[in-house]
């Protein structure tokens, strides 16, 4: 990884477009993904959201957070008074990793070393976007932003990522989709409450 980072640093992208061109050209660490899914949203957005990795639909469409988890995130953002188009949305890992089961492509969690491979890009990306607040959605985003494995339940809320921007940790929307029905409503309400705090912190 040190050599890979040095090689990437050599390319010294001087803009988000230049960085995105490098990401677009890169091969997935694990073969299979259709394309790299880049971050989306305005440069200078006051809030940036970092997810885990693109899912099946993101991989096909080439846009972050357009599948079921993304739709849930959009709905919760709206309820919290956040405008999705004003935020910057990206992922810790830029390629979909999956296991084929019949016709379905089942998401596989990226390993710590895969997350670390993509960290240099994420750091540069957030430097260019320069948000006021970065929201880590779930443990993979926390690992990507801090280099540490931290349980979400303990760290949930405002966080210090030792970066120029403020940090906030909450659950990943796909976690809400996987919960048993009787737990969903409360967990969703808690997620919206977190996003209301994010909205206030990002003002
Ligand atoms: N989950 C993520 O973490 N990111 C996406 O873009 C979609 C689903």
From TrEMBL:
Domain Uracil-DNA glycosylase-like: 38-196
Superkingdom in the source lineage: Bacteria
Family as reported in the entry's similarity comment: Belongs to the uracil-DNA glycosylase (UDG) superfamily. Type 4 (UDGa) family.
Protein name in the entry: Type-4 uracil-DNA glycosylase
Species per Swiss-Prot/TrEMBL record: Methylobacterium goesingense
């Amino acid at each position: 990884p040190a050599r890979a980072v040095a090689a990437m640093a050599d390319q010294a992208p001087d803009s988000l477009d230049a960085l995105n061109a490098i990401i677009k050209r890169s091969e997935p660490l694990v073969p299979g993904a259709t394309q790299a899914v880049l971050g989306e949203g305005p440069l200078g957005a006051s809030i940036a959201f970092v997810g885990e990795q693109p899912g099946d639909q993101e991989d096909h469409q080439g846009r972050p957070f357009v599948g079921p988890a993304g739709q849930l995130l959009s709905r919760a953002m709206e309820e919290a008074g956040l405008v999705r188009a004003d935020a910057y949305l990206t992922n810790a890992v830029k390629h979909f990793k999956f296991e084929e089961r019949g016709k379905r492509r089942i998401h596989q969690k990226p390993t710590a070393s895969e997350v670390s491979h993509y960290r240099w890009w994420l750091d540069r990306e957030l430097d260019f976007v320069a948000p006021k607040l970065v929201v880590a959605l779930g443990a993979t985003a926390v690992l990507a932003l801090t280099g540490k494995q931290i349980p979400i339940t303990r760290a949930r809320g405002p966080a210090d990522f030792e970066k120029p921007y403020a940090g906030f940790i909450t659950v990943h929307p796909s976690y809400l989709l996987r919960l048993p029905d009787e737990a969903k409503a409360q967990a969703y309400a808690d997620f919206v409450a977190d996003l209301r705090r994010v909205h206030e912190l990002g003002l």
